[in-house]
C-alpha cells in the first residue's frame, strides 16, 4: 500500500460496520453496484454530450471548454464510473482519484457523490471529514476556473457543497444504522453465550450434587456389606445359621444399594425441578433415623439414638441434611472405630436450630483391614451443612471422636 493512501485506508476494515468484505457479492451488492454504475456512467455521458453540443446561447456567448479537455474529462470520468464496481475493495485509490479529478471535471460529479457516500458508510468520521473538506476545496477551485459556469462562483460552490454534505450525511445515517444492528447482534450473541454458560454451570452443579448424594447413600450400604463380608471371611467355621443370616444381610444390603443407585440415577433422567415434591428416596429425612440405626445394629455396631424433636416439624431441607449427616457419621464410625458404641443425639427447636451430635470412643487399635474410603466424607458433610446455612465441627475430645452439626430451623409462619 502506497504511503499517500495511509491516511484513508488503514482504519478501513477495522471501522467498517459491515465487517470484512465477502468473497462473493450478494444479489443486493450486484443490484446496488449496477445502479451506481448506471448513474455514474449515465451522468458522464450526459454531461459530456452537453459540453460537446452546448445550447446556442452558450455558443453565442463564447462559453465552452476546449474539445480535447472535454474528451479527457469524459475518459477520466468513465474510468471512475467503471471503478464504482470495485469501490468497496479499492475505495481509497478511487476516492483519491476522484478528489483530484474534481478540480476540473464536471462529468464526474455524480460519481464523486457516490464515493463520498461510500466513504461515509465504510470509514470513521475523521476520515470522512477530511475527505469532505478536500471535496469542498476542489469544488471552490472548480467554480472559480471552469468557463462553463455561468451561474456565478458562490451559487455554483454552494450547490456543490450542499450535495457533498448531503451525500456524507446520508452515508453517516446508513453507517449508524449498521453499527446499531451489529451491536444488537453482538448483544444477542453474548446473551446466548451467557445463557449456554449458565446452563452448563447449572448442569455441573447438579451433577456434583448428585455425585455427593451417591456417595452419601452408597457409602452407608457398602460399609454394611464390607462388615458382613468380613465376618464371613474371618469366621468360616461359624454355625450355618449365622452364615445364612449374614449372607441374607449381604444380599439385602446389596439389593438396597442397587435400589438407591437406581433412584439417584433416576433424578438425572427425569430432570426434576425445584417446584416438584422431593422424592422419598434417595433423600430420606429424620423420620428414617430409626431404620438407619437398626441397619447399623444389624451390622454389629452399637447405636444409641436419642431424638428429642418431632421429625415431622423439621423443615424438609433441614431434615434431609440432618439425615445425611447422621448417615455419614455412622459410616465414619464403622470405618475408623469398628465395634465401638456410637451415641447419636438430635435436639433443637424452631428458631434455635437443629443440633446433631455423634460420639464414639476412639479405637484402641487400628483394624488390620480397615474399610476403604475416599477420606472426603466429612469434607462433604461440612460443605452440605454450609450450603444449608449451618456449620459442622469434628475432632477428638476426651478420648472420644465427636461430630457436631448445627442446621438452621426457621419456625413456620
From TrEMBL:
Signal peptide: none
GO terms of molecular function: ATP binding; phosphorelay sensor kinase activity; protein dimerization activity
Organism domain of life: Bacteria
TM regions (residue ranges): 30-53, 68-87, 94-119, 125-145, 157-174
Tagged with keyword Transcription regulation: no
EC number: 2.7.13.3
Annotated ranges, domain Signal transduction histidine kinase subgroup 3 dimerisation and phosphoacceptor: 206-272
Presence of keyword Ribosomal protein: no
Keyword terms, alphabetized: ATP-binding, Kinase, Membrane, Nucleotide-binding, Phosphoprotein, Transferase, Transmembrane, Transmembrane helix, Two-component regulatory system
Catalysed reactions listed for this entry: ATP + protein L-histidine = ADP + protein N-phospho-L-histidine
GO cellular component: membrane
Designated name of the protein: histidine kinase
